[in-house]
């Protein structure tokens, strides 16, 4: 299958000097400027770059699904179909909706997309949508197609394909939806699969499963894959060849070994330095691709100076103590579906403490309850049970018991930075008004001093104070997240809850925001509760890390300890599923179980709550290293 | 599912009871009753009034009784299919409405069909060719239809229909067939007249429909699942019909609720200008003359159709949209 000679004829697909422009404001804005690329049969080629670099546009051009304003203005895309040797088709010259192009699209070249939530029609069963692809390209009847579709569903890992056929996408989890997408793309056995950020929207353990699936199917069906990603960890684990794209040009291309062992182009080196990874030395800083200077000194003095610590005290200085937090969401009694057991609590007996000046990382996969915890601390949700003791330097106070003016005053002490920088800022308010609003609500300062504060806040997060009169839409995602951080800082809080603050951002911007948060913490003596599903990011910012699974904290340890010696099986799976941008440390696909790491059934007995016997409790297995297990568990089981 | 349908049906009862109370109150609000306005009218025309006969009629229809009793009598009658007696026409409401009702339903059905047949292709074209000359031109045409008053269009159409085709002015049929029993000639005459009201009433609705379909479809066209369908190799038109069009139909189904009452009441002004034998002008006349049983029963009938229409569109949504059917708030 593999063609060892890199001749033009041996390539499955060659992109030659491709130019693509967008018709905007009467002119043609170039998005791809003379990119050349080759994909060899049966190999995985990774196309790496930031958003806006033109990598998705190239994929759309190969598939002939460029959006209307885009136009191929030069170059060739040559496709050599292995089923029809000798004939070379120039896709760039084909009309997008011609019969010849439609026969290639979905039949010989297929694509899977980033967002499994929106890529499937919610009104049609997945079986219907997958079968449609088959029947478009093969003359088969529904009776013949259904078993083939079910076979494909089984192949991508649906446990009961016959039942899955009649499922609607919204009944499935993100991982299963992406499997359905893969089934749809592969049902016609294409020669080339284009995977556009196929795992970016997924949790890390699900990502590992999908990557394994893609790799297995690629070997089994002997197809080539064009993998578009910004995650160099995914590249190192999946790709045979790599092309790095920047501003519509290919900067560097070669085998994955050559690229990782000897990156030549400065852009690629910068990209590698901008991503947090686990081998960073303590205190090592990320290098953002474009550095944004910040002036935090404008904010110093905003907050009261930290209380001098009693030199004789040995216990840690705790800012927030969370004890026995439990929250159960009320389930609406559906009119036509009654009964069934009440779901387990979203947050179940969660206890931890956040020390003054530290950054506590809270890690877990989507749905584990970490955002619920943050909402409870913000007093946006009232828990079913539990205790929140906040000590802002003026004596401990019960956050949950606070009400009225006491609660209003306490709200200035805890502020939040949200995940989505696009929807968390009102599009109808100027940035200045957004930053003034907290001050106005709490009646802080005069009109003039508020304006001064807004300017200081903007400077502190690296934005131009003159931009205060602009509206959020004129800022990029990273700049908006800076505005969100500035808003959270406006009241001079003690505790900042950052709920996935960099998940929606590009790698290079991510480094800027992480550095900003770090600077602010150091300069202002802030305390963070940093919630994320990205272990590398948490590893970079956090001092201690709590791992959450199914509403419970299963492990809590200092950063170095957790990553060096994880004890809980869930933590281990989580860490094992992170792809490293390092060829020497490939993912161990064999140990990644299909059932998912969140299934306690796969855990050893010491960590399993069987419903009878004594409840699980945190057990100290090392200095400040706690694991949720049975009290009478064998010490050997609790060893890393 | 059955439970849901039953629940919805039970919920209709209090709605209708409240509506009937409201209608009765509003009709009772103006001072006087039908007989008083009748006497005033007769006196204005200089005719003598037989007060005794009127007093007898008042007694016969219970106008001397307290309002609550009259309300119960009215509602009770309606439950048995007796909608009361129209004083104006001097016959039971059932008989007054009867012959007009089917003409109205016919006009409305043709109008709705016309709206759909015109609006769907244009809406789909406008959405898929956004900001093209065709889109702008058709939009302009639609807006013209929306902006020109119906009565003006009605007058213009009547004139040209008479000049060019010799169609008689006004009415749904030639005058000779008014009140005549049904015959082929009468049906032909009706069909000859029908296109004028259908076109006039339809233009406004069509424009609104095009705009809404275009807006809904434009939202859907940029969704990721449309790209997925294209990436599968679906021909553009089949992809359009199967995915985004179906998604954008929810608003259209939700509209059915308001279509049902429009079937029997819509476009009163046009109907008056064209002297159509439909129920619209009759309702207006009944309200003016305080012909309370006719007006009340008719309004009640409209309310009933609205409730039924909403029920039908809700059930259709449940059947057509699996997210509503299976979601039940349990999943995202």
Topology:
The complex is a heterodimer of chains A (640) and B (332).
Chain A: E1 13-24, E2 27-39, E3 44-48, H1 55-63, E4 70-80, E5 88-90, H2 99-104, E6 109-112, H3 126-137, H4 142-155, H5 161-164, H6 174-186, E7 192-196, H7 204-221, E8 224-229, H8 232-238, E9 241-246, E10 249-255, H9 256-261, H10 266-274, E11 318-327, E12 347-355, E13 359-363, H11 370-377, E14 385-391, E15 396-398, H12 404-411, E16 414-417, H13 431-441, H14 447-460, H15 477-489, E17 495-499, H16 507-524, E18 527-532, H17 535-541, E19 544-549, E20 552-558, H18 559-564, H19 569-576, E21 617-622, E22 625-629
Parallel strand pairs in A: 3-8, 3-9, 6-7, 7-8, 13-18, 13-19, 16-17, 17-18
Antiparallel strand pairs in A: 1-2, 1-4, 4-5, 9-10, 11-12, 11-14, 14-15, 19-20, 20-22, 21-22
Chain B: H1 2-28, H2 34-44, H3 51-60, H4 67-79, E1 85-86, E2 91-92, H5 93-128, H6 133-147, H7 150-165, H8 184-221, H9 224-231, H10 236-247, H11 250-265, H12 268-273, H13 279-288, H14 292-320, H15 322-327
């Amino acid at each position: 299958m593999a063609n060892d000679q890199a001749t033009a004829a041996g390539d499955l697909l060659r992109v030659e000097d491709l130019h693509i422009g967008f018709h905007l404001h009467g002119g043609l804005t170039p998005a791809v400027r003379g990119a050349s690329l080759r994909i060899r049969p049966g190999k995985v080629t990774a196309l790496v770059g930031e958003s806006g670099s033109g990598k998705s546009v190239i994929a759309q051009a190969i598939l002939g699904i460029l959006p209307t304003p885009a136009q191929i203005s030069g170059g060739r895309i040559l496709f050599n179909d292995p089923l029809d040797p000798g004939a070379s088709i120039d896709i760039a010259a084909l009309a997008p909706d011609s019969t010849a192009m439609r026969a290639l699209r979905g039949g010989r070249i297929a694509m899977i997309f980033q967002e499994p939530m929106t890529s499937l029609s919610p009104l049609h069963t997945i079986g219907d949508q997958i079968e449609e692809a088959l029947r478009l390209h093969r003359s088969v009847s529904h009776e013949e197609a259904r078993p083939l579709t079910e076979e494909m569903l089984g192949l991508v890992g649906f446990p009961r394909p016959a039942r899955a056929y009649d499922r609607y996408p919204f009944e499935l989890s993100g991982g299963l939806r992406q499997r359905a997408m893969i089934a749809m793309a592969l049902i016609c056995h294409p020669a080339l699969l284009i995977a556009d950020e196929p795992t970016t929207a997924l949790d890390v353990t699900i990502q590992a499963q999908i990557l394994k699936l893609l790799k297995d199917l690629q070997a089994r069906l002997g197809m080539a894959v064009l993998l578009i990603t910004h995650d160099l960890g995914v590249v190192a684990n999946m790709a045979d060849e790599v092309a790095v794209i920047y501003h519509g040009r290919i900067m560097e291309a070669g085998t994955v070994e050559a690229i990782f062992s000897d990156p030549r182009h400065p852009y690629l080196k910068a990209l590698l330095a901008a991503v947090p990874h686990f081998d960073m030395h303590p205190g090592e800083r990320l290098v953002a691709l474009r550095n944004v200077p910040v002036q935090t000194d404008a904010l110093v003095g905003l907050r009261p100076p930290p209380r001098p610590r009693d030199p004789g005290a040995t216990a840690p200085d705790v800012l927030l103590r969370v004890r026995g937090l439990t929250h159960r969401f009320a389930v609406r009694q559906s009119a036509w579906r009654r009964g069934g057991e009440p779901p387990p609590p979203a947050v179940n007996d969660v206890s931890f403490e956040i020390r003054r000046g530290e950054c506590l990382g809270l890690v877990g996969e989507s749905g584990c309850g970490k955002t619920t915890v943050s909402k409870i601390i913000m007093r946006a949700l009232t828990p079913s049970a539990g205790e929140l003791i906040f000590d802002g330097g003026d004596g401990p106070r019960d956050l949950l018991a606070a009400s009225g003016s006491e609660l209003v005053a306490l709200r200035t002490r805890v502020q939040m930075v949200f995940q989505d920088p696009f929807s968390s800022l009102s599009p109808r308010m100027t940035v200045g008004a957004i930053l003034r609003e907290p001050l106005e609500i709490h009646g802080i300062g005069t009109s003039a001093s508020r304006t001064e504060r807004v300017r200081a806040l903007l400077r502190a997060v690296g934005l131009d104070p003159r931009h205060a009169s602009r509206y959020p839409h004129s800022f990029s995602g990273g700049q908006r997240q800076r505005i969100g951080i500035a808003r959270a800082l406006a009241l001079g809080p003690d505790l900042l809850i950052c709920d996935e603050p960099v998940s929606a951002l590009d790698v290079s911007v991510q480094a800027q925001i992480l550095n900003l948060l770090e600077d602010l913490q150091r300069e202002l003596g802030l305390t963070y509760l940093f919630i994320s599903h990205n272990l590398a990011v948490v590893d970079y910012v956090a001092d201690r890390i709590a791992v959450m699974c199914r509403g419970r904290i299963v492990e809590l340890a200092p950063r170095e300890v957790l990553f060096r010696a994880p004890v809980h099986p869930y933590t281990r799976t989580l860490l094992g599923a992170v792809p490293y941008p390092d060829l020497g440390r490939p993912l161990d696909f064999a140990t990644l179980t299909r059932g998912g790491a969140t299934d306690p059934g796969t855990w050893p007995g010491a960590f399993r709550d069987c419903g009878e016997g004594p409840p699980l409790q945190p057990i100290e297995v090392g200095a400040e290293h706690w694991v949720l297990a049975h009290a009478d568990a064998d010490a050997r089981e609790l060893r890393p | 599912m059955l439970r849901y349908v039953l629940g919805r049906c039970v919920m209709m009862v209090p709605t209708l009871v409240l509506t009937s109370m409201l209608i009765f109150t509003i009709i009772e609000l103006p001072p006087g009753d039908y007989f008083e306005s009748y006497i005033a009218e007769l006196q204005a025309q200089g005719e003598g009034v037989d007060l005794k006969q009127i007093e007898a009629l008042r007694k016969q229809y219970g106008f001397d009784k307290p309002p609550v009793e009259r309300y119960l009598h009215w509602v009770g009658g309606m439950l048995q299919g007796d909608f009361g007696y129209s004083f104006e026409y001097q016959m039971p409401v059932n008989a007054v409405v009867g012959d007009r009702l089917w003409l109205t339903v016919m006009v409305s059905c043709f109008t709705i069909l016309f709206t759909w047949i015109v609006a769907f292709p244009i809406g789909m074209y406008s959405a898929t060719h956004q900001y093209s000359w065709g889109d702008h031109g058709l939009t302009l045409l639609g807006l013209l239809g929306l902006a020109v008053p119906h009565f003006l269009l009605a007058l213009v159409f009547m004139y040209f229909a008479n000049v060019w085709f010799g169609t008689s002015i006004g009415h749904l049929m030639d005058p000779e067939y008014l009140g005549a029993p049904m015959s082929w000639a009468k049906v032909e005459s009706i069909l000859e007249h029908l296109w004028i009201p259908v076109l006039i009433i339809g233009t406004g609705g069509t424009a609104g429909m095009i705009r809404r379909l275009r807006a809904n479809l434009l939202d859907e066209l940029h969704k990721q699942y449309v790209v997925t369908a294209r990436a599968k190799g679906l021909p553009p038109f089949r992809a359009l019909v199967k995915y985004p069009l179906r998604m954008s139909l929810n608003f259209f189904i939700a509209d059915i609720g308001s279509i049902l009452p429009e079937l029997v009441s819509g476009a009163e002004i046009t109907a008056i200008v064209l002297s159509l034998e439909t129920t619209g002008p009759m309702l207006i006349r009944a309200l003016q003359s305080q012909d309370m049983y006719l007006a009340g029963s008719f309004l009640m009938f409209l309310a009933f159709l609205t409730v039924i229409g909403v029920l039908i569109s809700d059930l259709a949504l449940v059947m057509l949209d699996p997210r509503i059917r299976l979601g039940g708030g349990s999943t995202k």
